[in-house]
Amino acid sequence: GDLVRSLKTNGAPELDVKKAVAELKLRKKILEDKELALAPSDATFDRAKMEDLLRRRFFYDQSFAIYGGITGQFDFGPMGCALKANLLNAWRSFFVLEEQMLEVDCSVLTPEPVLKASGHVDRFADLMVKDIGTGECFRLDHLIKAHLEKLAADKKTSQATKEECQDIVVKLDGMTKQDMSDVIQKFNIHSPLTGNELTEPIEFNLMFATQIGPSGLIKGFLRPETAQGIFVNFKRLLEFNQGRLPFAAAQIGNAFRNEISPRSGLIRVREFTMAEIEHFCDPNDKQHPKFDSVKETELLLYSACNQMDGKSAEIIRIGDAVQRGLVANQTLGDKIVAKLVLVIFWFQGLVANQTLGYFMARIQQFLILVGIDTSKLRFRQHMSNEMAHYACDCWDAEMLTSYGWIECVGCADRSAFDLTQHTKATGVRLAAEKKLQEPKVIEVTEAVPNKSVVGKAFKKDAKIVQDYLAALQKDGVVEIQKALKESGEYVATINDVNYKLTKDMLIVKNYQKTVHVEEIIPSVIEPSFGIGRIMYALFEHNFRMREGDEQRTFLSLPPVVAPLKCSVLPLSGNAEFQPFVKQLSQGLTRLDVSHKVDDSSGSIGRRYARTDEISIPFGLDVLPSVVRDLSYGKTTWTQVESAYPKKFLELNKEAEDKAHWRSKFTDTI
């Protein structure tokens, strides 16, 4: 950690920094694995038994299983659908309704220019190789790492080769396509499954490509995240919010990533549900009006600083974590200082602002509400070399599972990256206005189009060119003015189409203007929830085995997300009591209580076990036969209490009137 700090401070070559950071990550991983190995193990957890229960009761299973299945794709059954729906309803209530967010539902099919502007087309890729015999694909960095680690562990390998293997693994993150190809050749790496030779490395974009429309001319992708639909609708959302900042937009929907090697069940899949929030705020004022309500919340924070120093995560009040960064917030207006400030945040393990801190606390509150074990929850700050291209700070809510710590929620400060990129690509200003305390005079340089000339030259595209000119900043106008003066023309590229501008098409005006508002491009704080991953963590954290009978397994989910809320278990199968059971079921339905009537054959114990397996939290035993026997002297109350040692509730007339059903029977709840 000290070496990385020193290299960054002294402006060392990028390759040296990458090598040091890679070594740091390697040591951090070894330390974390050792920490997990030394921690008390959950001897009661058995992943195989849990997965058997989930498949047997059809929470989920592999898609197209009768055709052999497809890796990384899963279908949810009745219980899985109900759990997922309850989880999303709880999310919508907790965030969208309580925070008064603006919910949208945007298209999954996304035109290429949108994702080109966001950086996904150029940066959302991995290198892979194929088995030339079978066509099986392997992610190249994972393949090289696994092969060299195995080679280095072999007792027959020379010390020099071991050191070379370790050095390559450390440098792997910074290697180019050619570097990795050379490693494949040097170490004669083949397919780990068949021993066949491998193809040359291929760049593989993780987005699913498609064509929109019958002509095939409009290239598009299945969206890799839901966020871009919100960003491109920012202007409409701002208008809906009467032009005021801050505000948040939210979206629930499916996203797609064509993973090379999907694995670990629901954790790494190709199609997944996301619930994302984009909170738009003033980049120079990231205070949150409700921060005081959460500032005492304690979170387990694993800062980048602690990761570099080989320290463990620390329990810190979110108010204290943000307090440490208050000085830094005062200088965010200057880009150079802001960059230094973010480095300070990273080195000191600070939470950059109140809004980011507020959402981290709310994320923890929500996860606990739906059943995540607090002892298996932490927030880990991204290190600089793992930060997404759009983020300036990010904390992941990670949950400890049998697969280790897995990221389930990301909370990122995306700054103004996305709105700026889409403004550049389209010429449409995605900005807000902020009222000034006092009016000020500004210098204005603008390109004024000659509409008649532009109209004749570009016809149906004239408005595109006019909007482009209207959206230009001073630097862009000066660039056009210079080109027209030197060569008499300027080529403007708008949405990948070139338009040639000439002197007669526009004039450049310079003047002063008094303004009462200033234009700002909002920063974005983004909590992004991976619903499938949260569901998997819920399964592990709430899986139980009966004490003394490990073959009897069940789930103990909180009522708020449990697939069904109540089971109705008639203790008598007599036909004369069926109308009563039906009436009771209808009453529960009218009260919007999801339930299951289990009047199948078998002992009451066996039926209880079936309801426990699918995590039904409440049970209603219907005991008409007991009441009948009491009424006719066939049993005594003492005998009933002995047989059913739970509290009985005798419904009197007043209670009957309040209920949706009328009954003279006594029920136990």
Write the layout of secondary structure elements.
Layout: H1 2-9, H2 14-38, H3 47-56, E1 60-62, E2 74-76, H4 78-97, E3 102-103, E4 109-111, H5 112-118, H6 120-123, E5 125-130, E6 137-139, H7 140-153, H8 159-171, H9 177-186, E7 202-205, E8 209-212, E9 218-222, H10 227-232, H11 234-240, E10 247-256, E11 271-281, E12 298-302, H12 304-309, E13 314-317, H13 318-323, H14 326-329, H15 335-348, H16 354-370, E14 377-381, E15 393-401, E16 404-415, H17 417-426, E17 432-449, H18 451-458, H19 462-470, H20 474-487, E18 489-494, E19 497-502, E20 506-520, E21 523-530, H21 531-541, E22 543-546, E23 549-555, E24 566-570, H22 578-590, E25 595-597, H23 604-613, E26 618-622, H24 624-631, H25 637-643, E27 648-649, H26 653-658, E28 667-668
Parallel strand pairs: 3-10, 12-14, 24-25, 24-26
Antiparallel strand pairs: 1-2, 4-9, 5-6, 5-7, 8-9, 10-11, 11-21, 12-13, 14-15, 15-16, 16-21, 17-20, 18-19, 22-23, 27-28
Helix pairs in contact: 1-2, 5-17, 7-8, 18-19
